[in-house]
Amino acid sequence: MAFSGGVKLGDLDDFISLSQECVKPLIQAADGSKTQLQSVSEAKALPVAEVPQVQKPNLIKSKQSSNDPKAQIGQVTLSDCLACSGCVTSAETVLLQEQSIEEFMKRTEAARLTVVSISPEARTSLAAYTQEDPSLTMRKAAEGLRRLGANYVLDSSAAEAVALLEGKAEFVERFKASGGSSSSSKGRLPLLTSHCPGWTLYAEKVVDPVVLPQLCAIRPPQQVQGRLVKTCLLEAHNRRQLQRWWRAHNPLFAGESQVWQAPFRAKSPASAPEPVTPDQVYHVFVQPCYDRKIEAARPIFEVPNMPGVKEVDTVLTATELLDLLREAGEGCCGGCGKSACEKTEPQKLRPVPLQSEVYTDLFLGLQATRALSCSVRGNAGSGGFLEHIFKEAARELFSIDVPSSPLTLQTKQNEDMREVTLKDSSEKVLLRFTAAYGFRNIQNVIRRVAKADGNLKDTGHFVEIMACPGGCLNGGGQIPEPKKEDQPENKSQAARRQRLQNLEELLIGSSSGTTYVPPAEHPLVLPIYRYIAAQVSAKEKPLEGLIGSQEIRSWLSAEWKSLKVDSEGKDVVTSSVLKW
Hints:
With about 575 residues, this protein is of the alpha/beta class. It has helices at about 40-45, 80, 90-95, 100-110, 120-130, 135-145, 155-180, 195-205, 220-250, 260-265, 290-295, 320-325, 385-400, 440-450, 490-510, 525-535, 545, 550-555, and strands at about 20, 60-65, 70-75, 115-120, 150-155, 190, 280-285, 315, 360, 370-375, 410, 415-425, 430-435, 460-465, 515. The chain is about 35% helix and about 10% strand.
């Protein structure tokens, strides 16, 4: 399929709905034939001139226009536009086809070990849909995924806590190096967050290359979790399997009759379990948006010393998780003749027992016996980076203790552009942090950053940037709220804003069974840092000495490169350029 050089989207209000309609009709393949690439590697291996055009990618759905019966309308989601430099290419289309429910079912059956991580935002969306508390929702999701072949189901709060700690360390380091201004080359400010893949893709492909060094050089939480799953958790799994095999065949424990010994006793004593390797682990992450699928496919996010082995193999959205859990349900409505249908809802699933090994953590502890945790008390819908770093930076840089209550952000140009400041007794601004959500606000921020010239009054010292208006809780992959046909459009906007507030309360509220645990006090954070330190041969230190250290950062770092220039800094002219 060939697309025009400019794909224009109409009727945009900067709210992310399930899809937006592209006003440019689809252009079919020149020869009318249907071609398909089987894999991304196959696409990359072909010379540019020989790469076939995909006639109708899964992401582009067409329908007849109500205004013009002869025209076709292509529905293009925001993630489609972010996936390329102006159009959806064949290779990227195939890439996203591999991030699907069908791929999950196929690879789960073939993998030796399947691990599913669920993000707090996706968990919250599912809990809101089932109208159950998040802890019970996670236990039911674990049961459904177990029936579909998953060995372990994890919460990702520990990886989020590590990312917050490293983000704070980088900001403090930059602030000290720059003296609080943007003019220093050692620690140029403002620091721009990099945990939103929609924003980082946009930055690499559209934004001026001089801005990229200001992106936080730490892995997004998804990839922190992914790297730990295929190293830390995998080692714990292999140790457990070996210990159980040894115990099952040791005469000293011959009288034991635990159920878990049965599969090992059936084997010959000489057949010790073969250790699972990272390439035999299938890691799936459930996230609130589609852009995480592109993030997981980045070449830089691979297992250490294992080229080609991704840290996260497949990303599914909350909506796709709901579809999976429906497939794992018991019975159906009784009239469709199928084993599962739309009326087979996750609420009907039995939660895994509290002692189940399926619902676990990175060290294979029993997660069901612990409460879910959130690292911040407010503004947590996009990871809580602004909330956590502002408070910790105020304490560390200026010895000012900010109240533990959630920060009150002042609305600027619109509700998705907010800021908070820290002032001394003379009303001098010490810190200015900004939250910029949605591409309308991202463009404004980038323009200000490009011409700041040492003045941080307009840009601030830190900017939390998210592609989705409303943040991650409003991601395009979240489970949509049922629409009410009789609700006016203006009230619908207000209702969506109220829904985001309700989701945040469900994410962080104690009434939902979630407890506030500062990142440094998360029970898994210290063990994680000690594990990473052992991997990089770092000296044993207290947690404060490990956070932000060069050894730890080398294991958790990420590099962002502009696609607008080549290795020599010369401009790269692409076939089409996306105009925002």
